[in-house]
Amino acid sequence: MTQDSFFETLELQYQNQLPFVVYSRAINSVIKCWLQNDDALHTTSDFSESGFVFAPFDLNNKSILLPETECEHYTLEIAHLDLVEDFKTASIENKGEAEHLQLVSKGIDTIKNGDLSKVVLSRKVEKDLENANPFTIFKRLFNTYKNAMVYCWFHPKVGLWLGATPELLFKVEGKQLTTISLAGTQPHAENSYVTWTSKEYEEQQIVTDYITKQIEPHTSDIKISEVETVRAGNLLHLKTYIHSQIKPESSLKSIIEALHPTPAVCGFPKELSKEFILNNENYNREYYTGFLGELNLKTSKTRNTNKRNVENNAYTVVKTNSNFYVNLRCMQLKNQKAVIYVGGGITKDSIPENEWEETVNKTKTIANVLS
Predict the structure, then answer these.
(1) pTM of the prediction?
(2) Which pLDDT tens digit goes with each residue over 108-128?
């Protein structure tokens, strides 16, 4: 399938107001699209179906499913997408500074006076778009963010979302669970030696210990990798892989509930920070800081026990695979506007004015794709 025919098929789907998702996983030159045959709204609560799932921050709300059997599937293998610029944008007005400073101050006071250790507080910013084509934005994201899961998702009864998220929630291959612990941040500088403080390693260990504790009731044979430095755009992070085996009695839903939302998008302890967010942010995150990805897709591989007699000694191994990414660095398109979502982690030592500036800088990062 050529690039032109691939995106013409997507354009027709969008013009007909039918659900679709187009996406590419991190460090991957394969773009996939799923086109649902009708505009029915499918949801999941137990995550037992097969399809592509788009889940909200608060799992008390519905997770949207594009069922595998109700969709046509196309694949495009390409390293770089050609695009024609077709829209203009206005500059962002970062409104709501006083409200955000007040929210962060309240978060700091709550941490100092209670059992909350960290809370992630966010806001949304609107940017005017003139005749924006979502596939042009998707192409820009794909060409710009090679270390991210890049996507464009649409359902006429829900909305249109795009993003480039670098953060894996977890993946399942058969019974093997892989998740990552990510902490510590510093700017990337070419030809410079990377050093981390003991405080940053301690923060990384706290996240690793938290994830390990969360999955312990549901998995066995937990293995933790060495800490490594990874690059995401212009930033460096400390990263640890955590591998384990899902117990026979454990379900995918139990793993999701154990790990979502993560401390990176919610806070710690999870339930207390989530309650603070829902009661104080004064807007609905919807699918920002939710998760998305392939759900229970089956893959098969033929193995031979005797190379001399392939026909009689071949057998097929079928695995069920899932991979979910946290919906960060994302936007929603509606009413000729891009609604951009940004946030930051608040601790007892946070300074409200600095937290505001951090959200302004994060807004610029994603807005660059629209400029």
Answers:
(1) 0.91
(2) 999 999 889 999 999 999 988
